[in-house]
Amino acid sequence: MTARDQTQAPEGQARVPMLDVRDLRVTYRNGERTVPAVRGVSFTLDRGQTLGVAGESGSGKSTMALSLLRLLAPSAQVSGEVLFEGEDLLTARWARLRAVRWSAASVVFQGAMSALNPVRTICEQICEPILLHEKIGQKAARKRAAELLDSVGVPSRRSGSYPHEFSGGQRQRIMIAMSLACRPDLIIADEPTTALDVMVQAQVLELLGELVRESGIGVIMISHDLSVLSHMCERLAVMYAGQIAEIGPSKQLIAEPRHPYTRALGRAFPTIGDPASRLAPAGLPGDPPTPPELARLSEGRGCAFEPRCPEAVAACRTETVELWPSGPQREAACLRVLEGSGA
Ligand SMILES: Nc1ncnc2c1ncn2[C@@H]1O[C@H](COP(=O)(O)OP(=O)(O)OP(=O)(O)O)[C@@H](O)[C@H]1O
């Protein structure tokens, strides 16, 4: 699968993208149980670009994103390449990986309450990665923490308070401030606003959008909510059963979906904050594959979406499906795209 940035450097050599993910595969092994959660995902991302990752629950979004910085439990076996500025993070030494986390790439998790330490002040928590990764003193770190808090709309005079003293929206803003503490080049935001009510969700998203535009950070944002992603991200990857079903510019993907799964999602296209906006593809029979079905699929051929696909033909059961070009800067993993009828 490609989805590669073909931009050429002035000398005529291929430019190295900030992030180049190649054939990423993650399998959870718990005793006898095997779950191939991510099955060959490839994409690139540059500074200042925003990539939204959409998909139903269990499609492998979080597993894919967290594996980029090797943040998964040891039961997860990861293969492929995650080239960050040309260096493979999957094989990097732990010391190097620790240096990359926070300072070059950081994560905003869903549910800030569980991600923040309840017994430490927010100033201490924001200062921690700064002091760990940069050669600056306490005073300068505290000054930066205060600036960061102000920039996310949490008054810095409250920096001596503990997480429970803040509202859910404020805590999520504090998480965003923390993720920016070491001025990273990449932020991975995993459902950053899921737990928040509609108004606060819109505010936090607006804030995140502003920070991205101002700072030129690259962002991978995961959400169930297609409307949030299309609003926030210039490119969109739709995941199904651990693979990218379709990837391309958000507006085009939504206006003219090429993959039947994206079309089904589009029919259920919601508005921001609508509780019904959780991806529930309209008019599709059946359910996504279960872990045993995924394991069978990974060993054989055929399209994972075929059992639910209203446009499937016999070949969809037997042919290997991969991402094929489906338009300018677009790819879709559908045989019908090759025929032209999926387009
Ligand atoms: N620690 C784990 N051990 C075993 N299987 C896991 C583990 N974490 C996730 N899985 C399985 O991996 C698959 C992908 O899960 P993942 O959480 O990445 O999907 P997701 O698209 O992010 O879903 P959601 O939107 O619900 O968070 C699912 O089948 C899930 O049950």
From TrEMBL:
One GO term (biological process): peptide transport
Residue ranges constituting the ABC transporter domain according to the UniProt record: 21-266
SUPFAM superfamilies, A to Z: P-loop containing nucleoside triphosphate hydrolases
Pfam families in the cross-refs: ABC_tran, oligo_HPY
Principal place of residence: membrane
Source superkingdom: Bacteria
Keyword Repeat annotated: no
Family as reported in the entry's similarity comment: Belongs to the ABC transporter superfamily.
Protein name: Peptide/nickel transport system ATP-binding protein
Keywords: ATP-binding, Cell membrane, Membrane, Nucleotide-binding, Transport
GO cellular component: plasma membrane
SMART domains registered for this protein in UniProt: AAA
NCBIfam families linked: oligo_HPY
Subcellular location field: Cell membrane
GO terms assigned for molecular function: ATP binding; ATP hydrolysis activity
Membrane topology: Peripheral membrane protein
